[in-house]
């Protein structure tokens, strides 16, 4: 029979400091948790540190705000679960399981030790939010150019190391300048935000959408060859064309031109981007609202 889930809310510095003093003396948990601002690493450090005191077979950490679900070990029959919170900030939920029931003394000890985890998780939350702001385009809610540059370099290294494919799709909104000129920048902003939403709805969960600049977007497709990337690009193009945007009394029909490239053996970031960008301009020159391969 599973233990009833417990809920932990640390709401004052006083309770945190008291628990920290005890735990530093016995387990040195707090100092170890100061070494990272990554959620998964913090949970891993914490679970490793408490294993001798509170043996457990598995741990699961869920943080809905950052779409994070991390688990380790083999799930046992009995569990204890804690919703972590400081002040009014939710910090996710941690669940431990094992084959034997957790004793009341173990649960009291665990609740004391969790005080050491609360503020490192809060710091990680603040850090991750800052990263999100730095890497997110505020208008379209896609990743920005800085995020693209960092991600592309990392994915090229990974693709070469693992012998996998990697593809790019460049997307450029057709006649965007005329939208701004005729209806104003507010309408142009609405159009860009709408196109970004349509693109995100069209691609796979594993694909990443970035705003490259102006009216250009780029889609990064890991482990995807040219043929599959072409299929995805055509779906994106078709989905954009199938939507309309109402602005005042007018209805705008928006289309886009797309260019596709796939990583080759001698490619670097510049050459891979250039082929996709060139293919996208070929689509423009051939009449727009189409996909070209680079």
Characteristics:
294 residues, Alpha-Beta Plaits, single chain, 9 helices, four-stranded antiparallel beta sheet, elongated, five-stranded mixed beta sheet, alpha+beta, Beta-Lactamase
Distance between the termini: 60 Å
Task: Give the ordered list of helices and strands.
Answer: HHHEEEEHHEHHEEHEEEHE
CATH second-level architecture of the largest domain: 2-Layer Sandwich
Round the Cα radius of gyration to an integer and report it: 25 Å
Q: SS-based structural class?
A: alpha+beta
Task: Determine the number of helices (DSSP H or I, runs of at least 4 residues).
Answer: 9
Q: Domain count, please report it.
A: 2
Runs with pLDDT <50, length 5+? 1-25
The tally of strands reads 11
Strand order of the largest sheet: 6-7-5-10-11
- Provide the β-strand percentage band: 15-25%
The portion of residues assigned to helices is: 40-55%
Shape call: elongated
Give the oligomeric state of the chains in this entry, treating copies of one chain as homo and distinct chains as hetero.
single chain
Query: What's the name of the CATH homologous superfamily of the largest domain?
Result: Reverse transcriptase/Diguanylate cyclase domain
Catalytic activity: 2 GTP = 3',3'-c-di-GMP + 2 diphosphate
Pfam families: GGDEF
EC number: 2.7.7.65
Organism: Methylomonas subterranea
